[in-house]
Amino acid sequence: MVKINGEWEDAAGKTIAEYLSGTSYDVRRIAVEKGGEIVPKCAYDATTLMDGDVVEIVSFVGGG
Amino acid sequence: MEDALVIGGREFGSRFILGSGKYSLRLIEAAVKDAGAEIITLAVRRANTKEQENILDFIPKGVTLLPNTSGARNAEEAVRIARLARELGCGDFVKIEIMRDSKYLLPDNYETIKATETLAKEGFVVMPYMYPDLNVARDLVNAGAASIMPLAAPIGSNKGLATRDFIRILIDEIDLPVIVDAGIGRPSQACEAMEMGAAAIMANTALATAGDLPKMASAFRLAIEAGRKAYLAGIGRVLTRGASASDPLTGFLHD
Asked: What is the ipTM of this complex?
C-alpha cells in the first residue's frame, strides 16, 4: 500500500505515470513528492511506487 | 521603466501585490485588471481529483506568480512547499510564510530566517512575511531575501497599520523593498503606508470581504499610486504648535 495525499491506496508496483493515468489529476497542473523529495515530471515513467511509500500530489489554489 | 519596483532583478510598474484567496476564481481576471496588479499570490495544497478547475487558468498571462508557503509550521516545511511550488512551473519567486500559532497567525521570524537562507542559496527570489523587527529584518537581508514583507496587523483582520512605527523603522534602515503585507483593510491605510515610503502593498482579505471586489481593487490601486506619488513628492512638514498663513501677510484692506 502507498500513502497518497494522506490515504492508503493499492498502488505499489505501479510507476507514478501509471498511477496518474488511472486518476483524473491534470498532470500539467500538479507536482509530485515521494518520501519528501520532488519527483520531476520527466521521472514519472521511471519511478515505481513501493509498499509504504508516502506520496504528496499538490497544485496551486487561491491564497494570500 | 520610470520608478519601477525591482524585486529579484525584475522590474514591476505596479506596487500592488494581489492575493487570490477567499474569492471566486471567476473574479480573478477582473481583480488583476482593476488592481493593475503584476504580481499575484497563490497557495500550494494537496491536489483534488474532484476539482477540475485550476486557478492558473484564471490568471491573465504575464502576471508574475508568487506562491506562498502557508501551512508551513517550520523552515523545513516551508522549504518543501517552495520546492513543490517551483516544480509546478511558475518561476522562482516565493513568499515565505511560517506560522506556529493558529490563533493569531503570527509569522515565526526565527524559522523564516532559516528558510530564507536555504531558499536563497537554491536560487529562489525570497520574499519573507515577517513580524516587523529590525534585527530580524537585518538577518533576512544577510540571509539573501529579495524584499521583506512586514505585517501591518494580524492576517485577515483589516485593522490597518497597527505596526506603523516599526514598519517606519524598517523603511528607514533596510535597503530592500519593504512591502506591507497583512492587515491592510482600506485604501486609506494602503495610501498611508505608501506615503511613509513602503515599496508596495499586498492585500487579499480587504478585497475578498469588500462589497464589490473589482471596484475595491481599483480603489486600492488609486490609493497606492497616490501614496507613492506623495512619498516621491516629499510630504510637507507638520508644525509642532501655532499656525502658518497660506495667504500673503501684507496688502490687507485696512490700515
From this structure: 0.94
